[in-house]
Amino acid sequence: MRIPRYSFALLLLLAISSVSSQFPRDFIWGTATAALQIEGAWIEDGKAPSVWDNLAHLPGFTADGSTPKVGPDSYHRFEEDVKLMKLHGVKHYRMSISWPRIVPQGKKGKPVNQKGVDYYKKVFKTLLDNGITPYATLYHWDLPMNLVIKRRGIESKYFVEDFLHYAEVCFKEFGDMVKTWFTFNEIWCMALLGPLKDRDRGRKPYQIAHNSLVAHAHTVELYRKKFNKDKKGKIGIVLNSSMMYPKKNDSESDRKAAERGMIYSLDWIAHPVFTGDYPQIMKDRAKGRMPEFTEDEKKLLINSTDFLGINHYFSELCTEGHNTDPHEYWGDRNVDTSKDPKWKRTDSDWPIVPEGMHDLLMYMYNKWTKKANIPIWVTESGMSLKEESRDAGVNDEGRIDYHKQYIAAMGRAMKDGANVGAYFVWSLLDNFEWWSGYSKRFGMVRVEYTDPPQRFAKNSLRWYGEFIKNVTQNQAE
After folding, report:
1. Is 380 labeled as catalytic in the residue annotation?
2. Of the residues 380, 387, 433, 466, which is catalytic?
3. Per-residue pLDDT tens digits for 371-412
4. Cα distance between residue 174 and residue 134, in whole Å
């Protein structure tokens, strides 16, 4: 049975009564998607395949055998997505631009696909015309397949110049409409969980992270010097991490394992962005397998972000690991993780731990952003729910409860001093969830994968819109 609309107001008052005062008037409430996961049109209008487009077609590559070639089909139906956001009061939208749709061959000097440029101009204009601010991610994992074949992908010594070519096209073509940019989404995942993840674990993860960080630093420099002279734009990076706790609070080895786990997930990328170099423990344990930054790269990296984006979903318990291979990342880290059996789980088997949101934000604030005097932005948070039918999917009360708890935890972190400026729900739409295909549903909009795909707002989207409205009203008062 669907919850009547009047019930949302009651739920809302209960949800925000204790936390609404923590959110300033300019706090950003938004939702998020990524190009490969929602656009479809995988080889249409001049777009070339990405690495995920190609590999997803291999038998057994995704859990349900699906591919991203159609999906929610936002390439043809983005106006429906915008209409749903506007209807429910969502005024901020984080999305990504598809590299192979803009520069199909990926390489520096290769032609720009004008039809791809025109598509994103239409999307950005439509958003702005409907009072929705766009936030653009330059790289959300859809690497042009041509760069994998011809250049060895992100590991290539040419990656930085290829990425800069693509980024400059985006800044030039869309900079009058997009004022906030994210360079990379989840470098940790790119390095360790990419579609070619089972190759060399000794050097490859470190090289991917290194090249991505160098590309990030040069991209930020390019934007700041050439495209943001009036200082009205922002640019930054998006990290990801669970919150890691010692399995036993009274165990020194568990405590050290949790500390090391955080260093090898979050600090690996954050430390260079604020200090210009990797954590010393990682360099010591890698024994020469980690690339080194040049002095010029170190200077470019320091404070190369106007905010610190974080994607956070779950927490983990840590103990000393049993992987002692001295020649690969997991052996370097040597941490075993587990889940507290008392924690509730999502359909992806991810633990729901609201306090982890609070503790992670405090960790980031105390270690990085307080000194740098920049805000943390929660650029993704959300949950998958098992939805056996459309009606079951629309009545997603578990998702509402998740966001109420995680938002409240974020509010507590802000009360404790953390400077947090944004919360983007993952995701606006059900979408292609990488190896899971379409078997896991994170969206606040139910997508029926018919021909053509159909969209149905879930209760969570209605709740979120009412939440934003009421929090905004409280801020005004």
Report:
1. yes
2. 380
3. 999 999 999 999 999 999 999 999 999 999 999 999 999 999
4. 11
